[in-house]
Design brief:
By secondary structure, the protein is of the alpha+beta class. It has a domain of 163 residues: Sortase (Sortase, Chain: A, Beta Barrel). The protein is built from one helix and eight strands; from the N terminus they run H-E-E-E-E-E-E-E-E. The longest helix is centred in the first third of the chain and has 58 residues.
Length: 243
């Protein structure tokens, strides 16, 4: 009979403890890897699915509203009062769009024949998940000044994924309820810091423009999966037509 003095000590042996640590570490790595994969799928796929649905919904509401307005008889405008206070027939259009509401659609031929996105009033985080955003306080569409628009480069539908491909001479076409505006790119893409808010000034100092006019600024994040910088292009209004 073995003496109790020859029994192994109670508790896990050193080899068993090592196996337990290795197994625990492996399970933690597996869990972390699974979470990373799920997060990547969410960022690359699911946010895009949700954003595409949201943009399609905004485009549908926008076009339905335009169709309803076109089908309704337009109220007769009151005659302007006589004298110098009468409004000019060439006065610039006024923005006046409710915050968070789509009021125009954008088409960029460089991005492909099916690329069309809604433009909403404002540039809040949640708003940019539903389309492009018009910087509050910048010029109205087609108006004198700088009509400035922001959009995600990656995630949430990747609306400006191909932004670096834009070149001077490319067209950016915007349409509202009554008018189609064609802007032609004259400068950019320029890489700058997010603090460089002068890029949306009425006459941006780093743009090709030196005098007041009817301009367009587009901005997005850089690098492709980061937001430490901004990419900017500038365009000027070169065509306007009804419809």
């Amino acid at each position: 009979m073995r003496s109790r003095w020859n029994r192994p000590p109670d508790g896990p042996r050193p080899g068993g403890l090592l196996r337990l640590l290795v197994r625990t570490f492996s399970e933690l790595c597996l869990t972390a890897g699974t979470l990373i994969v799920l997060f990547t799928v969410y960022v690359l796929f699911w946010t895009g699915v949700k954003a595409d649905r949201a943009m399609d919904g905004e485009m549908a509401r926008l076009r339905d509203g335009w169709a309803a307005a076109a089908a309704s008889p337009a109220p007769s405008a009151p005659a302007p009062p006589p004298g110098p206070s009468a409004p000019s027939a060439t006065a610039a259009p006024q923005a006046g769009h409710p915050a968070g509401r789509a009021f125009a659609e954008m088409y960029v031929p460089r991005f492909g024949p099916d690329w069309r996105k809604p433009v909403l009033e404002g540039t809040g985080t949640e708003l940019l998940k539903k389309g492009l955003g018009h910087y509050a306080g910048t010029a109205p569409l087609g108006g004198l000044g700088n009509f400035a628009v922001a959009g995600h480069r990656r995630t949430y539908g990747d609306p400006f994924k191909d932004f670096p491909d834009l070149r001077p001479g490319d067209e950016v076409i915007l349409k509202d309820a009554t008018t189609t505006y064609t802007y032609t790119i004259r400068g950019g893409p320029l890489r700058t810091l997010p603090t460089d808010v002068a890029v949306v000034d009425p006459v941006p100092p780093k743009s090709p423009f030196t005098a007041p006019g009817r301009y367009l600024t587009l901005t997005t994040c850089d690098p492709e999966w980061g937001h430490s910088h901004r990419l900017v292009v500038w365009a000027e209004l070169t065509g306007t037509r009804r419809g």
